[in-house]
Amino acid sequence: MFTFLEKNPFFFTLAFVVAFAVAGVVEILPNFFKSARPIEGLKPYTILETAGRQVYINEGCYNCHSQLIRPFQAEVQRYGAYSLSGEYAYDRPFLWGSRRIGPDLHRVGDVRTTAWHEKHMLDPTSVVPGSIMPAYKHLFKKDADFNTAFAEAYTQRSL
After folding, report:
1. Which of 129, 132, 45, 151 is nearest to 88 (CA)?
2. What is the pLDDT along the chain (159 residues), one digit of tens a residue?
3. Model's pTM, two decimal places?
4. 84 touches 96 (CB < 8 A)
5. For residue 143, how far is the Cα from the chain centroid?
6. 91 — phi, psi (to 5°)?
7. Fewer CB within 10 Å of terminal CB in the chain, N or C?
């Protein structure tokens, strides 16, 4: 059998591809499905979190800020533990992104205070000199869309 494969490169390549595909299915797929499930203790977003996420989407914050900490040493040192795919189980649509004009926002709430965030949204250069982020003063006058947030949160919980 092996001499036949050695003498026929086409069949050798075919056998190699089949063996590699089977090994990939056996090794990769179970881990893929396991990591795509919500991590233990993860809960769907609250109505307030969903409303905040809608503001994040509507204002286009995801264009400059990603929400994914990649497993690179420099990012782990800067932002903390890297993101796991199960942390995004309730995100619809996914906003991972890869641009880094602004810092990653996945765990920034654990590092900065509410007062810092307020000041930063009103006048970004007052807390981060040289920042190119625009001011979002209009967000302090605008009401969040809680009806849509409630509908999205209800949908997340029912899924």
Report:
1. 45
2. 667 777 888 988 998 899 988 888 777 777 666 656 778 888 888 888 888 888 888 888 888 887 777 788 887 887 777 777 778 878 878 777 666 787 778 777 778 888 999 999 999 999 999 999 999 998 888 676 777 777 777 776 665
3. 0.65
4. no
5. 26
6. -80, 120
7. N
